[in-house]
Amino acid sequence: MLYKNIKGQIVAEMKEGVLRKMVSGRKHMLLKPKGWGVDKDIIDKAREELCTEIRILDTDTNTVYSQFMDRFMQKKIIINRGHGDQYVLLLDYWNKETHGVK
Q1: What's the number of domains the chain is made of?
Q2: pLDDT at 102 over 70
Q3: Quick one: pLDDT at residue 101?
Q4: Contact present, 51 and 16 (Cβ < 8 Å)
């Protein structure tokens, strides 16, 4: 299943219960607070589709940030910086795995 943002751009996909996003950390990682955000509507739809895990690939560093959906929902904060509500999970709560050197 593909997920689109409010502009109609495909920003994530879900396969086998895992929601996956590929993003440039330089452009999309939040700095204050430091973490990763996902559109609230996308998370809500993914949960309806029985999503169990979220993985974000930072294409700048080849690092995968992952977390189980239940933990994500327990620890998330909600922010809106003019592009709709986002669920944000601070970096400390993500599992992090870097693949190779980029």
Answers
A1: 1
A2: no
A3: 56
A4: no
